[in-house]
Amino acid sequence: MKFGAAKFAIGQVVRHRVYPFRGVIFDVDPEFNNTEEWWQSIPEEVRPRKDQPFYHLLAENAETQYVAYVSEQNLLPDTTGNPVRHPRIDEMFERDNDGSYRARSNHAH
């Protein structure tokens, strides 16, 4: 994969390929930028490569909302069109008429 060629964009709604959660992307790292302990805590059979974009999501599952850090290989576009329930969405994004999210101009990434 070409360094820095992120497949997904800030404001895009995505879902995890394996686990049942989805979210809105609010930041992108061109490659892994978290702690070694965090990376090692992922079960080896699903542990992602470090040399790919990683995305910061305002995420939700059936029970709760939280911030997630997910590798590109584990994300898929979310095509449900359903709004994301995360409490920080309105602070960071505006929702367009077509249901997409656009970063608020007053929010610095």
From TrEMBL:
What keywords tag this UniProt record?
Answer: DNA-binding
The ranges of region (Disordered) come to 77-109
Q: Does the keyword Phosphoprotein apply?
A: no
Point to the regions of Basic and acidic residues compositional bias: 87-101
Q: Which domain of life is it from?
A: Bacteria
**Which intervals hold domain Hemimethylated DNA-binding?**
5-104
Xref: SUPFAM superfamilies:
YccV-like
Question: Which GO MF term does the entry hold, naming one?
Answer: DNA binding
The protein in question is named Heat shock protein HspQ
Give the species this sequence originates from. Chelatococcus reniformis
